# Entry
Amino acid sequence: MGQINFKPAVLRPPIRVGILGAGGISTAHAQTLKGLADVELVAVADADPLKARRLAERFAIKEVYSSLAEMLGQSLPDVVHILLPPEMHARFAIECMVGGAHVLVEKPLCVSLAECRELESTSAQFHRTVGVNHNVTFDPAFLSVVDAIRDRRLGAIQHVSVGWNIPFGGNTFTAPLHRLKGPGAVVLETGVHPLSMIVRLLGEVKSASVLTSSTGDAHRGNRNANQDTWQMSLVCERGTAQCFIGLDRGFTDTRISVIGEDGSALADLRLGCGAVVENTRRSALFFKFGDAMEMAWSFANSASRGFLDRLRRIPAGCATDDNAPLMRASIGNFYQALLTGTEPTASMAEGLAVVRSCLRVIEAAETAEIATAKSGTKTFEPLEVESWQTPATASS
Amino acid sequence: MADPGDCVLVIGGTGFIGRVLVHQLIEQGNEVRVLSRNPARHSDRPGVTHVKGEVADRESLRAATEGVSVVYDLSLGGGPTWDDYQRDFVDGAKNVAEVCLERNVRRLIYTSTIATLHLAAEGSIDESAGTDPKPELRSWYVQGKIYAENALNELHRTRGLPVVIFRPGIVVGEGNKLSHPGLGTWASPTCCFVVGPGTSPLPLVLVEDVASALVLAKDAPDAAGKSFNLAGDVRPSAADYIELASRRSLRNFSMRTESPLGIQAFRLMVWLGKAALRRKDNQWLSYHELKNAPQRTQLDCSAAKTVLGWRPVADHDEFVRRAIDCHLTPPRSGDLRCAEF
# Structure
């Protein structure tokens, strides 16, 4: 991952913020911004005035606009949150930077290599800070893995494995991105979550091999549906990784396992707990018992802390909202960076690395075979193998 | 400068010290013959010939020493019983010595170990202290080395064997491990159990320095019949070493100190268990042996410097570079262990 070649700006509080795009995710952003000191949510812009007004009314946002140009020209925000569909991120982020605003972009930062290059050059030309909302990389369970690495308990990291099983699927994702990337839209939508963790730990994906399969409801009767499992083997800058994405699961199971030269760490993001297994410090007779007890204690300890954290959130009415703390940490980190003149942790460099990684995975999948189950069954036996067609190849 | 025509036999020339020694001997223009059990695993190269043999086989030694003027004995061995140590260490050293006498070899250079010394007391000793006066209370490995030294010294006194004995300390450097067994017992690659507080300066010595002392002994005029202890000038304690290893490697090295009494109690249990099972590998390890482990006694190595002109590395940073950094892989850009987050 590269570094920016200019000194990041230092902003003085209160930082004036505008939101571009009043869709579903804007509520979480507005809620988080309202809770941050030194930040003032002053404007919202959306092509749909009704949606913009609703958001403004709910969060007492004074200024409402129907276009970015109007918001930039009249409200002069210091920062704009780009909360539009992914294929629009780069274009509007660039417009913001040219108009003088720093930007926080929802993931993914952009959707093509050309956009990556354009964002990079615009940021350098106008000296604007760009952050990406890789909110999963601020999950407490993931951060406990990062802490274990930083505390040097694992040694050099050699391998990362992420399992990302979620209950929603291809139909949830945006149609325009699907038209652009075909089934690969899944990677740029939900795949950004596991890949942003992998990139944070091991650097950018340099090569990938992918096996996708379509086994269940997503495939039956809908030939355009996304593959519902993605298995990736990745070579990254500082090690290797595996990533499994399962869509339309009947359950959520999101976990990460990190293997280093001196130990391994496991984090269950859904349960909010994890454990580190280090090179033993016990003699041969006792190490199995002692290390197993230590691991059990580690799980119990992190589970207890997670439960206490939920209890503390009761007065605010968001005890069971597990996304709120992640958003607060991610967005808070971005504003802390602006106030101190440093790069945000989920920086533009990281955002670009994640996008390039996603694109490599999509490219690898396009040339790979797809394993499909027999129509009407959910078994893998026997497999039918077919190739997928991107919109580009389909039309040619 | 060595005579260009010197033909040198190195027994155990494929080991940790042996490889460096062979390299230095070749650099000085010697022709080197390496005796090992499996010469086929090593290919000949300019100046080095590999021959098959072992110290327990006198015939193989005779064949290997033909035309040889200097012999280095760096052989190892041992096994689960005392008979293995008797065969490899004591009888092996005698076999090499007898063949050297038969062949009129100009010099036999034998490597022993500082473990043969009694290092339990505070203070400093030099070579005049001799080996541990109670070998029967030491481990089979140490007993074997002491009896081998005694046999070689006896042959020097009675038959003029031109032997030089070296006792290297804890030899460190490329080719060994960062988690060096000389520091203590490693529960894992990053956790070392050390007997005692781990604060005494350890007799560490770089492998290149050991090899250079061995090379110097080949032609040093007053060395025959003498023994030399070899510890370097930079002597971190076990705690210092662990801290250095941690800091330089970005890994979580740790040290656990153990009381000798606690260890002895545990050993007693193991010994009783093995005795009940009538195991042959049941060696009683005395408390006398255990008291040596913290290596409180400091080694005065001025004899090697005076007699041989030995100059071990004295610069701390250079020592760290050669003893510790040689084992490390530099972290890659973006490694979270180096980055602020």
About this structure: Chain B touches chain A at residues 187-191, 193, 246, 249-252, 254, 256, 329, 331-337, 341 (CB under 8 Å). Chain B has a mean pLDDT of 91. Chain B has ten helices and 14 strands.
